[in-house]
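From the methods appendix. Each design record in this collection lists the tokenized structure first, followed by the designed amino acid sequence. Records were kept in a plain field format so they could be parsed without special tools. The example shown here is representative of the layout used throughout.

RECORD:
FOLD TOKENS (345 positions):
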């Protein structure tokens, strides 16, 4: 991923992934969809996220362990596989820790294209952990946001974010670290919440939300793990958008609402079946939890760009390749009669 980002450019990668994701949401009906498989453990969650469009199949293994940073470990780590449906053979095994941050930010910025006011200029970022710079970069590159106001309960994390963004070449991003959430959301057109806490948190309160704002709620993505006060969701001017409703009902901010509450699926917005933002006064809420389609799009993009740009490929022995496909035993026992080890790219 580092090599690819260096060759292609970070801004280009995040915008390209966003385009791939949007084009896949435009063919939402073609995807095999299911809520992800989540195993909840004491300190977090381990999830599998599969989907297929009938030609390709992808899955991601991803974790969410909010206490890991105290041990010097990442909250979210991931890897993914892209396979050919016709044969079932995998042809790409990829790291997806960086890729998840890129795709989550790209998805947020794409959602904002449909849901935020077009004159949005300022974004509040609440939470300055591993995902945060990617969110800033995606909203700057893809939505033209220049002013960012930041808050994290950990001052060192906020300083890290400022340092990383200032180190980027040729940027005109203005970052304002703030001392409270009140100060952070003051004048913001978009509010991104990207905190990690394995509990029902109310990071954003009703008093923080003003008519016309777009809320990009990224960190509430597990049963019992939320960021928004329920009254924000219940505002009469609030319109809630989700990736895949059955999964978000379990994992998103809307786990706090009745199962019959009104939500709109993003794929329907992209396909023109339901409206996105309808008025400059709407409060739009993108209740992001991360859906398998976004990883599918990202893996397909990585596979293509790696081939096109001549990125380094490493071959790993994953699938035995046999001259006689019925002689698996002979291959295992080392007769080597007509057996070769194959490479997965
Ligand atoms: N929706 C998606 O698709 C998606 C994808 C990836 C990660 N996530 C989620 O995004 C969140 C952030 O992930 P990360 O990898 O950046 O985690 P991280 O642990 O690296 O960073 C989280 C930050 O939030 C801060 N924080 C916690 N509570 C806060 C509060 N009340 N106010 C302000 N700051 C607070 C912490 O100090 C920390 O710096 C996680 O909850 C993760 O599960 C969602």
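DESIGN:
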């Amino acid at each position: 991923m580092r090599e690819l980002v260096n060759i292609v450019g970070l801004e280009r990668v995040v915008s390209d992934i966003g385009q791939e994701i949007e084009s896949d949401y435009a063919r939402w009906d073609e995807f095999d969809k299911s809520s992800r498989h989540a195993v909840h453990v004491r300190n977090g969650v381990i999830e599998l996220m599969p989907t297929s469009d009938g030609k390709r199949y992808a899955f991601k293994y991803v974790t969410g362990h909010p206490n890991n940073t105290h041990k010097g470990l990442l909250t979210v780590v991931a890897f993914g596989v892209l396979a050919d449906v016709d044969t079932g053979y995998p042809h790409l095994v990829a790291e997806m820790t960086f890729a998840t941050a890129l795709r989550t930010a790209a998805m947020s910025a794409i959602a904002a294209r449909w849901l935020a006011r077009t004159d949005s200029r300022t974004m509040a970022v609440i939470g300055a952990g591993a995902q945060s710079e990617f969110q800033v970069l995606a909203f700057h590159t893809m939505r033209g946001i220049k002013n960012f106001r930041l808050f994290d309960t950990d001052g060192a994390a906020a300083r890290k974010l400022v340092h990383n963004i200032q180190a980027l070449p040729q940027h005109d991003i203005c970052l304002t670290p703030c001392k409270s959430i009140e100060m952070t959301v003051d004048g913001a057109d978009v509010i991104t919440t990207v905190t990690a806490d394995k509990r029902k948190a109310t990071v954003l309160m009703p008093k923080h939300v003003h008519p016309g704002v777009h809320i990009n709620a990224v960190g509430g993505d597990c049963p019992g793990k939320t960021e928004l006060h329920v009254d924000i969701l219940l505002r009469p001017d609030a319109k809630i958008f989700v990736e895949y409703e059955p999964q978000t009902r379990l994992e998103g901010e809307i786990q706090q609402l009745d199962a019959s509450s009104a939500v709109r699926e993003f794929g329907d917005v992209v396909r023109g079946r339901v409206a996105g933002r309808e008025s400059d006064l709407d409060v739009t809420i993108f209740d992001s939890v991360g859906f398998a389609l976004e990883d599918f799009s990202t893996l397909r993009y990585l596979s293509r760009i790696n081939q096109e740009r001549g990125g380094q490929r490493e071959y790993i022995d994953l699938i035995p390749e046999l001259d006689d496909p019925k002689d698996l035993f002979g291959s295992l026992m080392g007769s080597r009669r007509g057996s070769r080890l194959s490479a997965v790219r």
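APPENDIX NOTE: DSSP finds eleven helices and 17 strands in the chain.
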